[in-house]
User: What shape does this take?
Amino acid sequence: MRTTSVPRLPLLLLLALIWPGGAGGVRITELDVPAVALEGDDVHLRCDYEDEGGSSLYTLKWYKDDQEFFRHQPGRAPREGDDHCRDHHLYHVDGVTVDCWVSTERDVVLQSVTKATSGDYQCEVIGEHPKFRKETRRARLTIFSEDLRAPLLLGAEESYSLMDYVTLNCSSLNTEYMPELTWLINNRPANQSMVREVDSRTAGLVFQVRPEHFQRGEINVACVTSLGPRHKMSTPVQLPNRDGPSVKGYFFNTGHRMEASGALFILATLSQLRTLASPAL
Ligand SMILES: *[C@@H]1O[C@H](CO)[C@@H](O)[C@H](O)[C@H]1NC(C)=O
Ligand SMILES: *[C@@H]1O[C@H](CO)[C@@H](O)[C@H](O)[C@H]1NC(C)=O
Assistant: This one.
């Protein structure tokens, strides 16, 4: 009867929505593709997912520039003769070599990348029957061939007095790309208010010398250049205190001045260490 069949369709839809296996899918919770890497690196790609509403994973696939190179399909092992990595299917794509030993369905490692590895990487997950709901995410990876070079640090004076201004320039010597430049003062990141953008390849550092800057008679400044999380080069410089005693005149880690010869200094340090080592005496 027509009058009773009309409300049945919405009811079924409602059931499909609240039914545990029917409503869900598989959701990508994290896509991690590094933006940059250098030739020869192993590049770690991560696509994490979670089941939603009782559905489970039907397939997880990786594509480079829309060409599939990796497929994980639970319960469907590759057949004899298929290109595979344990129970994952592999497909040939130029510039992509999957490191089979360390790759899992969530973490795929590309071995010894080349410029041909650059491209758009996409992870696709599809949930199980009956919806086969699909979700994709993508990110760009760029491979450079030029090694990261230690930056050029200019402008250091021979020595500094309190209240003097330290004015330094740090320039990247790389030509193929512009790495990130950061400044460290005594091994800590410099306050952003001290950093100046001089030009597209140079970062400046300007600060006024205060007593706490001197550690055992000098300020340790370094310019660090980095590309992605794995490549870092540092150019350090020591800025001595013009008015203070030489570095040797400072007592080990206290900053107090020692009016003693080097030998006495060492003896004093040793006796301090012994006191520390045997507090009961
Ligand atoms: C830093 O570079 C700028 C721009 O080239 C220049 O004007 C300035 O004198 C440089 N400073 C130092 C300390 O070299
Ligand atoms: C950075 O410098 C600003 C301005 O000189 C100052 O207000 C701020 O407290 C400094 N931050 C740190 C972490 O030292």
Q: What stands out?
A: Residues 61 and 71 are 4 Å apart (CA to CA). Confidence is low (pLDDT under 50) at residues 1-22, 251-281.
